[in-house]
């Protein structure tokens, strides 16, 4: 049979503690002498060891009491205060998840260090809020229709168009850009004042020349996507699209209606334009020609692998949009 022995703390009466302190002082703080002196004076008492003399004297000096229980009570009270403060901090962040540590410190009257320690101990992290395109209630249904259609038809042989952007106040350019499979199409510079006839001229000349380099079989299967720009919706542009891409173009009046306010569903908006703008505006632009040169150089740095990854990402984004029932979904992408 095995026995486990453990040392239990031995307590004394206040009278005994007082005698210990007196004897300890009488011996000028020499604990070994105090043990012998205490045994000589009080032969009928149990004799504490030298460590008890030292602890008793130090406890009396630091806390003003002999009681170990009272000291433990103070420690427990401190723990309870810390627990209550921690609960208040976590409750505050539950109710105000977008607050800052500084504001929480001011409201709760707790130091920022304590707040940081508490939220980190609860495995909470300060995630940044992602800005997304504003959606109107009617947009959800349009986005769902587009993604449900796109879910089973979207192919890599699908070029993309862009909306007009004016990047500078002093000088601006209209740029047309597309993505077909793993190829960045363009950039093409359009007239500053774009209307239906001028856009048709671009389609019949510059863009048609590009199409001639694509095998006929792929051209008969590719889809053409446009946004809601007025020039894209002009009668002459739609007539050209119906002739070149019968029932295979996306946009206003097309076989598939493009969901407005949905830059998160086209690789030009969620990837290409953002990458281009970051490169183009990395340093100040000095002139319109400088702007054009910067756009061309930035476009040339976009690789085929990047274009292919962007087009393939559309499938995952459509699935995420469907799961969100047409609402915002980019915050859930990994």
Automatic annotation (TrEMBL):
It comes from the Eukaryota. Residues 15-65 form the DUF4817 domain. It holds the Pfam family DUF4817. One of its GO terms (molecular function) is nucleic acid binding. InterPro entries: DUF4817 (IPR032135), RNaseH_sf (IPR036397). This is DUF4817 domain-containing protein. It comes from Mycetomoellerius zeteki. The lineage of its organism: Eukaryota, Metazoa, Ecdysozoa, Arthropoda, Hexapoda.
